[in-house]
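Quick one:
INPUT:
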């Protein structure tokens, strides 16, 4: 890859949107706008957008379509503003237009949409976000959610009203969102980045039709094992096999070069941490002891107490300012200004034998369903793919085992869709 075309050749991407199993229409929309010249990439980079509409009749579909169309238009038109401000401004302008459209027709009243936009630019990535669609990053088998879900469940957890993964947290409806583009003339947009994008990084944008049925860890593992087009296909297939309760939209991209023009530290700034309560208490005790010893004239003890307090003060300063994890390195919030507060969740995406076996179980469930319902499937290619998966298992190559089992799912579902006129099969697991 030459230096002159790295901006274009160093990225692979794919987009897929599916109606799911239970919806009458697809209210998701998406857009990929890839720069057609180095000059345009330098100014605005590549832009990827996912929107999940909401509203009666065709209102949600219209809202998401408007967001996916208007945001790239406004973003590319404003060539003078810095990239984060241009993206934020484009989202605000799209919000104004969707809001006015909703006010102009009673059938469109209160229509809205979620919005997740990622710009890959010379300095890395910049994310603009509203709602509960998501942007993820996979880096060296660590899968991180870069966006905060504006949902009732996440807001209550963030405010300390419920504990994550508690019974109460699981009882809160997941589809109640607290922020969306369109219903109101005013909009608060979360901005994240710019963060360096490194060679080998993979990113995924999706609507909640994917993240409901498919676990975060599963998404991360598959993203790391397959190229963009195939990972989109198998993720949508898995979501539909597990009921497909909503529309499903996925954009995935693989970065094959470093994008970090300004040389920002990959680890980011350190988070300031609050000291444990015991540390300042012990410092006060040490100071009081020094005073008591001074009154009693026990000068060696005074020196010892002062040294003790000074040591605690130095340790507290190191703990608060020098030892914390990098901002954005974990689920803890940190950082400020243009960097935002992400990532918000972190998962291991290392391929495992257990996950390869789980995918093999999905293929077996499809075999059983095909036999029971009389579906005609040519199993030769699928058998070959599973044989390659078994060979990878014997070598302990779980990445290849996962990849070949995923290929087997894709091949099976492709035949079933063709045979059943694009009607997705459902399988009980």
């Amino acid at each position: 890859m030459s230096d002159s075309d790295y901006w274009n050749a160093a990225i692979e991407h794919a987009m897929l949107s599916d109606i799911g199993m239970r919806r009458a229409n697809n209210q998701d929309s998406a857009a990929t706008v890839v720069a057609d010249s180095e000059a345009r990439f330098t100014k605005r980079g590549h832009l990827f957008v996912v929107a999940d509409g909401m509203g009666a009749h065709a209102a949600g579909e219209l809202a998401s379509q408007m967001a996916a169309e208007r945001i790239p238009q406004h973003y590319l038109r404003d060539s003078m503003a810095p990239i984060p401000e241009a993206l934020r401004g484009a989202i605000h302008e799209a919000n104004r237009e969707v809001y006015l459209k909703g006010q102009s027709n009673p059938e469109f009243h209160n229509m809205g949409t979620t919005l997740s936009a990622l710009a890959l630019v010379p300095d890395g990535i910049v994310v603009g976000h509203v709602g509960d669609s998501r942007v993820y990053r996979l880096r060296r088998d660590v899968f991180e959610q870069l966006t905060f879900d504006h949902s009732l469940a996440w807001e209550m957890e963030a405010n300390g009203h419920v504990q994550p993964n508690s019974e109460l947290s699981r009882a809160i409806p997941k589809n109640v969102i607290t922020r969306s583009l369109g219903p109101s003339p005013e909009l608060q947009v979360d901005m994240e980045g710019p963060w360096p994008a490194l060679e080998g990084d993979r990113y995924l944008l999706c609507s909640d039709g994917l993240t409901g049925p498919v676990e975060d860890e599963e998404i991360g593992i598959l993203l790391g094992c397959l190229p963009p087009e195939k990972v989109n296909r198998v993720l949508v297939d898995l979501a539909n096999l597990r009921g497909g309760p909503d529309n499903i939209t996925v954009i995935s991209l693989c970065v094959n070069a470093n994008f970090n023009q300004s040389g920002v530290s990959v680890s980011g700034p350190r988070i300031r941490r609050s000291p444990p309560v015991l540390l300042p208490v012990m410092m006060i005790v040490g100071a009081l002891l020094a005073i008591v010893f001074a009154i009693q004239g026990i000068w060696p003890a005074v020196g010892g107490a002062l040294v003790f307090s000074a040591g605690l003060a130095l340790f507290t300063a190191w703990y608060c300012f020098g030892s914390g994890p990098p901002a954005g390195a974990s689920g803890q919030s940190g950082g400020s200004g243009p960097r935002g507060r992400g990532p918000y969740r972190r998962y291991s995406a290392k391929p495992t034998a257990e996950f390869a076996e789980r995918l093999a179980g999905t293929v077996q469930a499809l075999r059983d369903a095909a036999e029971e319902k009389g579906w005609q499937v040519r199993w030769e290619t699928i058998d070959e793919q599973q044989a390659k998966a078994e060979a990878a298992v014997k070598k302990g190559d779980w990445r290849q085992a996962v990849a070949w089992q995923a290929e087997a799912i894709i091949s099976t579902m492709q035949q079933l869709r063709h045979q059943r006129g694009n009607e997705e099969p459902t399988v009980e697991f």
